Amino acid sequence: MEAAQKIDPASRIIRNHIPFDLDGGIAERAAIGVIVLGTDQTIEHEFREFLDVEGVAFYESRIRNSATITPETLADMEHRIPECTEVILKDVPLDVVAYGCTSASMVIGEERVFERIREKRPGVKCTTPITAAFAAFEALGAMNLAVLTPYREDVNDAVAAYIESKGFNVVAFGSFNEEDDNKAARISTESIRKAAIELGQIEDVDLVFVSCTNLRIAPVVNAIEHATGKPATSSNHAMAWHCLRLAGVDDQLPEFGRLYSV
Fold first, then answer.
1. How far apart are CA 190 and CA 211, in angstroms?
2. Rounded CA separation 93/90 (Å)
3. H helices present in the chain, as ranges
């Protein structure tokens, strides 16, 4: 292929100040900010599915954390929340900011997480995976829960106690007991499906909650609900739904299970 003949800059046609219109951009209906754990391999992948709604976009930052999940490492993230909030589209309004760690939200406290976010985004609507899960339980009329986690025993105890402190009953609890977040992200969806169905088939259970943003539920949520006859949700599943609803987006998305029809 012959090289293109060079153009004399003096003969170049130039058009400056071309008129243009502004529209609402890709986030015309909702702009959602998400603080993602440095070790999280799943949340963005699942949010792309759950938030694939015209006019809705999410923008994330990463927060440094330890891959070892303990009460101490979870609490250590608190002081980094404001700076991670600040770098998400700093001069662009956001409708919602979500902090993407279920267990840390319980250790730090939901309201404290919101306070740290609002240091940089005053007045913004906020959620966390556990905040969203509580909203989902209420929306689905579920009080008696089966909870599935990847966590070690002391974190599991804290999770169960926190959920029950909010007035819900944890009638069944299952765990993969894996404290390495990098391994938790690779727990297969088939393993999650089987465990969730086993827990969900317990007679007194109203709903199955899969706790941890690194556990994948998007491909299997309908299978869990079909097998158990009960609604199922997860940290990512509930938080994406809650972000939409907080932003005023009420689209029905039944392909993602019962919650997305509420």
1. 16
2. 8
3. 43-50, 71-75, 81-86, 102-108, 110-118, 129-139, 153-165, 181-184, 189-200, 221-228, 235-246
CATH tag for 132-235 (out of 2.60.40.10, 3.40.50.1110, 3.40.50.1860, 3.40.50.1820): 3.40.50.1860
pTM above 0.90, yes or no: yes
173 forms bridges with which residues in the sheet?
A: 147
Specify the 3-state DSSP secondary structure of 142: coil
Q: Where are the domains of the chain?
A: 30-130+239-251, 132-235
pLDDT tens digits for range 183-239: 999 999 999 999 999 999 999 999 999 999 999 999 999 999 999 999 999 999 999
Cβ–Cβ < 8 Å for 184, 152? no
DSSP string for 200-220: HTSTT--EEEE--TTS--TTT
Cα 79 to Cα 77: distance, rounded to the nearest angstrom: 6
- Fold equal for 30-130+239-251 and 132-235: yes
pLDDT one-digit tens code per residue, 40-81: 999 999 999 999 999 999 999 999 999 998 999 999 999 999
Rounded to the nearest 10°, the torsion over CA 190, 195, 197, 201 is: 170
DSSP string, 91-129: TS--SEEEEE-HHHHHHH-HHHHHHHHHTTSTT-EEE-H
CATH assignment of 30-130+239-251?
Answer: 3.40.50.12500
How many residues are recorded in the chain? Answer: 262
Report the relative pairing of strands 56-63 and 125-127 from DSSP bridges.
unpaired
